[in-house]
Design goal:
391 residues, mainly alpha
């Protein structure tokens, strides 16, 4: 009776209308199926049991075993000859299926956590091996340099003592081991780095160290300062909604044009030009609008840094999230194909929600820092027509 009372309370909270049984009552046979179709309470419990079974089957690592268990339970249920027996049997099965589903989810989470720890451990081992490999290469380079210095010193000593060249040649010379497999690998690492373009070397050096972190921190602090000055009306970040829309839309337009050119299978150079044109136009307009709306070197500098920092961080974060949508994630160890696809769909939905939330929040923030909460004409914003209106 306790199980029946608990289920009755659950049914009262979950559903207000009667639910249909999990099978066709027109084909019911036997005492169990006939009683379930006639009794509204047993009918609803049977429907809840069917939902619990479907959820447990979706979470099961071995669904065939659960199906066999369900068949065996049906045999037990059909042996009931009283409604009390059906009540207890159905209630106990619902409890079993809910506990089974929770246990399977816990196992999946534990397996996922174990896999994450193994991946982290493997990554650490790979980093340690890479560091050891670099140390070994450095040791070999030092040994080669030492032997070269010894050979040079021997030649100088031979010349100083007027030793015949034959004597110097008969002295044992060091033959460095052939550690490299190609002429490209024989060259020192510094020489290989020097052969890269200067811009690429600067970018790699910038992101390889903590320089980008310091730059981001300084940009964030100056941005906060610019927003504070904007609040005190000492500076103007965006004059109106049109000003903010133009500044933030130009990079997106450039990216959209680049995607269209890629779809048309045009060369990558044309795509890069389209993207860079949108970015450069956004920077040029941001500088132009800042000089129009502000006075003084401090206000102009702070506003330009604030605009570039906000736009750069927003588009970089959004770009990384969009790229992760198309990259997907690999199937994890011990994970079935169905679970991997379900996890990828769940992660994609979460990323789409995050992208939407960030876009809405950034749009609201941009509107908030506009000096005038209104849209103006494009000609007024760009000062295409500077002729004063006649009274």
């Amino acid at each position: 009776m306790m199980i029946r009372n608990a289920l009755a309370l659950t049914l009262a909270l979950v559903a207000s209308n009667s639910m249909a049984a999990s099978f066709d009552c027109s084909k019911a046979s036997g005492f169990a199926e006939t009683s379930i179709c006639k009794d509204g309470y047993l009918n609803t419990v049977d429907s809840i049991l069917a939902d619990s079974y479907r959820k447990a089957l979706a979470d099961a690592a071995h669904p065939d075993e659960l199906r066999q268990s369900q068949r065996e339970w049906l045999t037990v249920r059909n042996q009931c000859t009283t409604q009390e027996c059906l009540d207890k049997t159905l209630g106990a099965r619902v409890t079993f299926l809910n506990n089974y589903s929770s246990a399977e989810k816990s196992k999946a989470y534990a397996a996922e956590e174990k896999l994450r720890q193994e991946e982290y451990k493997a990554q650490r081992q790979a980093e340690e091996l890479a560091n050891a490999h670099r140390a070994e290469e450095y040791r070999i380079a030092q040994e080669q340099a030492r032997h070269l210095r010894e050979q040079s010193s021997q030649k100088k000593q031979a010349q100083a003592s007027q030793t015949p060249p034959q004597a110097a040649q008969t002295s044992p010379s060091y033959q460095p081991p052939n550690y490299a497999t190609s002429p490209q690998q024989m060259r020192p690492a510094a020489q290989q780095v020097a052969e890269k373009p200067a811009v690429q070397r600067l970018v790699q050096a910038f992101f390889a160290g903590p320089a980008w972190k310091y730059t981001l921190l300084i940009g964030a602090l100056l941005t906060c300062w610019a927003i504070w000055r904007h609040h005190t009306e000492a500076a103007t970040i965006y004059n109106d909604y049109t000003d903010g829309a133009i500044t933030n839309a130009l990079p997106a337009i450039g990216a959209a044009v680049a995607l269209v050119l890629r779809w048309l299978e045009l060369p990558g150079l044309a795509q890069g030009i389209a993207l860079m044109t949108g970015i450069l136009l956004a920077i040029a307009y941001a500088v132009y609008a800042t000089f129009r709306a502000n006075q003084g070197a401090l206000s102009i500098t702070l506003v330009i840094i604030a605009k570039l920092t906000l736009i750069s961080v927003f588009y970089v974060v959004i770009g990384m999230l969009i790229a992760s949508l198309f990259s997907g994630s690999a199937r994890r160890k011990g994970e079935s194909q169905a679970r991997a696809e379900a996890r990828n769909r769940r992660e994609s939905k979460q990323k789409m929600a995050l992208i939407t939330g960030l876009a809405v929040a950034y749009t609201a923030f941009t509107a908030w820092v506009c000096r005038r909460p209104e849209f103006t004409s494009l000609s007024e914003c760009l000062e295409f027509d500077t002729t004063p209106e006649l009274a």
